[in-house]
From TrEMBL:
Coiled coil: none annotated. One of its GO terms (molecular function) is sequence-specific DNA binding. This is Helix-turn-helix transcriptional regulator. It comes from the Bacteria.
């Protein structure tokens, strides 16, 4: 799941890979990680975005596109939900 942050893994394939039903995968995932698979994926994606902005000094658009966002406004909203500030302000701080 973390190996490809550009595209969310299909949950049905993930469930087949680990040999359990989709509902069981979601339930166990929530028990272990405190959120569903997609929420976990988005958190990891935004942590990577924060790292790219801060450590690699990439622009907001470079990071958004590198992580598979085609709409930078959507990237900015998701980033703010997870990190607590807009990506431009984050990279400037």
């Amino acid at each position: 799941m973390i190996g490809n942050l550009v595209e969310a893994p299909p949950l049905t394939e993930l469930a087949q890979l680990v040999g359990m039903s989709l509902s069981k995968l979601k339930r166990l995932f929530r028990q272990v990680f405190g959120c569903g698979p997609y929420g976990y994926y988005q958190t990891m994606r935004m942590n990577e975005a924060a790292s790219l902005l801060r450590e690699k000094r990439l622009s907001v658009s470079e990071v958004g596109y590198a992580l598979g966002f085609s709409n930078l406004s959507h990237f900015s909203r998701v980033f703010e939900e997870h990190i607590g500030m807009k990506p431009k302000k984050f990279s400037a701080s």
